[in-house]
């Protein structure tokens, strides 16, 4: 598990290899990840958007930006957490992701970034 804390918001990431399949005559490697966003601060916060950098050993880095996470913009109260699962496809059995969430502190109306630690994506058969 990968973890990082920014301004009292703890991000934990757990990854899994989901398998391989062919799409458009190419082999693809499917990875899943589950992220828990835990509010260890004293104020309620809301996740408004996300920014990802996806690294693939056989392709160029891909940058992805979007609103919320899996269609939601969760409000996380002090002591509470929000967990969601998602995934990505890579052209190789080895890669990584990192990024940040844009958030708003409800008490101060401050906008801030919460960083997601770099997490590795690797198929079990690709490592010695």
UniProtKB/TrEMBL annotation:
The taxonomy runs:
Bacteria, Pseudomonadati, Bacteroidota, Flavobacteriia, Flavobacteriales
The UniProt entry, under NCBIfam families, shows: PRK05461.1
GO terms in the biological process aspect are:
error-free translesion synthesis
Q: Where is the ApaG domain?
A: 3-128
Query: Which source organism does the UniProt entry give?
Result: Robiginitalea biformata (strain ATCC BAA-864 / DSM 15991 / KCTC 12146 / HTCC2501)
This one is known as: ApaG domain-containing protein
Q: Note the Gene3D superfamilies from the entry.
A: ApaG domain
Which PANTHER family does the entry mention? F-BOX ONLY PROTEIN 3, POLYMERASE DELTA-INTERACTING PROTEIN 2
